[in-house]
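Progress against Task 2.4 (sequence-to-structure conversion) is shown through the following example record, which the project officer requested during the mid-term review.
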Amino acid sequence: MLLLGAGLAVRFAHWVGARRRTWIDVQIRRQIESGAVASESLKRSRAISEAIEWVAVALTYFIVFILAFDRLGVPLTTLVAPATVVGIGLGFGAQQMVGDLLAGFFLFAERQFAFGDVIRLSVPGQNVGITGTVEELTLRVTKVRTAQGELVVVPNSALRQVTNLSKDWSRAVIDIPVSVTEDLEHVTLLLREVVTAMAAEPRWRDLLLGDPVVAGVETIDVGYVQLRLIARTLPGRQFEVAREIRLRAATGLRAAGVTSPAVGDSAAQATR
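Structure tokens generated for the chain above:
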């Protein structure tokens, strides 16, 4: 009866957790479809629901284990010495798992990231690594779905440097190459007109936190310069905003007769 009750309790915990996560997913989907972003409270609630479900299952099995030995008449005091030896052995053999659980606890406590956040996993001191959306966050592992559809599973203790790309607000940074033979002041004015017109449209105005800015010349290379545009956006929406700015900038410059520098010409100049 104890084992049967434990099985039913575990299935009930999984059922309640699944219902809760489904409800949260529906709310997040509605917010995204309405043009907003998923609230931090919903993303945190989904991650916490998974952690609570895992803890409930573990406690259920532990309590049933103790009650079963009590029903069989096995004195629990006699299990102290063997349990100590087994615990020490497991402690040495399962250091990685203990580290994963502790790291997962601090992920939840410090709200570093949550379900639905766009994060980048990389080596400390570097800005390149795996970028994707958090699909599942438990006390032991973090599952990230990349843009190519790959599911990356990382133990929480292995997370050395995590860059949250969708926390509070995001920024789209776009560099536009322009030939040095062009009138840079005229090109800068054209880009300002393009981004200002884009910010005035309702669809993009709701995603932008202020008007995009043409910062000016960012770098100077052989045969061309890079003009930088910066747009502050809602969390996680910087990618679609950046793609739209690139499209409009390329279309606007082409319509004005401004051509992008040819890579071959720049290489030839560098060779000469």
